[in-house]
Amino acid sequence: MDVDVVVVGAGPTGLMLAGELARVGVRTLLLERRPEPSEVAKAGGLAGQILQLLHHRGELDRFHAAKAGPEPAPRFPFGGLHLDFTRLNDSPMRAVLLPQPRLEQLLAERAVDRGAEVRRGHEVVGLRQEDDETVTVEVRGTDGPYPVATRFVVGCDGGRSRVRDLAGIPFPGTAFPEIERLASVTVPEGVTLLDDGGLDVRGVGTIPFGYTATEHGVFACSGMGGTIGVYTAEVEATEYDDDVPMSVEELSASVHRVLGIDLPLGEPLRMTRFGYSAKQADSYRDGRVFLAGDAAHLFPAGGVAVNAGMLDAANLAWKLAGSVQGWAPPGLLDTYTAERRAAAERTLLHTRAQVALRRAHGPTGDALRALFLELAGDEQPLLRLGALMAGTDVGAPSSEAHPLVGAFATDQALRVEHRDPRVAGLLRSGRAVLLDLAARTDLREPAGLWPDRVDVVTATVDERPADVLLVRPDGLIAWAAAVDEPGATALPALRQALSTWFGASSV
Ligand SMILES: Cc1cc2nc3c(=O)[nH]c(=O)nc-3n(C[C@H](O)[C@H](O)[C@H](O)COP(=O)(O)OP(=O)(O)OC[C@H]3O[C@@H](n4cnc5c(N)ncnc54)[C@H](O)[C@@H]3O)c2cc1C
């Protein structure tokens, strides 16, 4: 076997996955067809639950330090509206501004530092699942074609995934006909920024801040901080190549079609163009071949895809590692499809709803948006929407499970003898953690039977959410003992959870 895992595609998903695998000693080869990293401006930042995971890994500072500017105001676009999360004390939706090329550079450094091999200019053109052990990957490399024998392949090769096609995994859904353009430009001659964010354009008049729907599409502008933000959305049959950046002339023509004016535009600072689809792969797995990121799902609204793809990677990595290292219980790899498809369904729910909000025109559409904004002004709906956007609301666990099961382990201060760490930090090892918050020796002892996979930590907190938490390497709570739960029910349930997630004990 040449390597343990071949990751196809050096976007945020593949790079995150390669780093996660390499950090726990899995021999990982990442193959990327482009000879050089892409400089095309796509996502403008990291948002949602992935920030919590990077924080738990002690890595968030690295991404914060690289951010392009100040924290964005915690107002996020949602279906042609803005949701204002500033009214919440503890918003579930957070973001770090970090243009995608810079994000990919940091993730690539992280993967290589940990021992993954990244080959650029090497395109995957074929796959063969040989037997129960091996997949052969056919690669067109810089020096000609060659095969790679591996135990697993993960297609992180984007929305038009070759790996998905080669594995024959259906990708049903809808492609929407709108093309959206989003740009930031300098202020040109003849345009004055108004205090309310609108523009005064010589020879045209005032253009208000915010969205304007016309019969040809939607236009929005904002003049702030010495730059102008411009957005258009219109129905267009043209198929654009994501690798060909939008020009100022293309944007200007779009503004003219939608708004019917010639808007002067300054120098381009950020130019992006995109279309929307709502699609999801029927399965994220075919034998030893897996899909993650855009290859597995496409969402019809912005700000959520990078988060979803990087969380796919975190979910899959420790399960693949368990299979490579030989301890994964039967069925562990199938939980990847089940868990991440369920999460993507929640993301499809709110992003499809955003399409309806965005596309509804005329007085009825205005009324729908006004009512929606009124409801989103209340704390509970705003919290729920924030959790959906962050990817932390992935539906309720089974009725018998503790309500914390499936949730991300929130960070909180812990008191441990001679130390005062936080929950974040316990997961840096890449192993699972059994966190005993109530001196439950009866429940601590069995976890000691998985010493290579589960760290056991005893601590106290001010208000304990449970007596014991079993936290997976990806930060999700696998099992919890309710406060004062008798050992008679908790002990067999814990043993079951340990073997379901971490296989047979090693002692
Ligand atoms: C204009 C624009 C703006 C966006 N804004 C946001 C945003 O604000 N927030 C957000 O979360 N998302 C945003 N997105 C979406 C986000 O960019 C994608 O969801 C993200 O890049 C997906 O990451 P990925 O790693 O799954 O796939 P990709 O980034 O598509 O990476 C796939 C990689 O696989 C490589 N590849 C393909 N085929 C092969 C092959 N056969 N062999 C080897 N390599 C191959 C490709 O070259 C590519 O590098 C935006 C997208 C666009 C186009």
TrEMBL record:
Its cofactor is FAD. Keywords: FAD, Flavoprotein. InterPro entries: FAD-bd, FAD/NAD-bd_sf, RIFMO-like. Residues 2-348 form the FAD-binding domain. GO terms for molecular function: FAD binding; oxidoreductase activity, acting on paired donors, with incorporation or reduction of molecular oxygen, NAD(P)H as one donor, and incorporation of one atom of oxygen. SUPFAM superfamilies: FAD/NAD(P)-binding domain. This is FAD-binding protein.
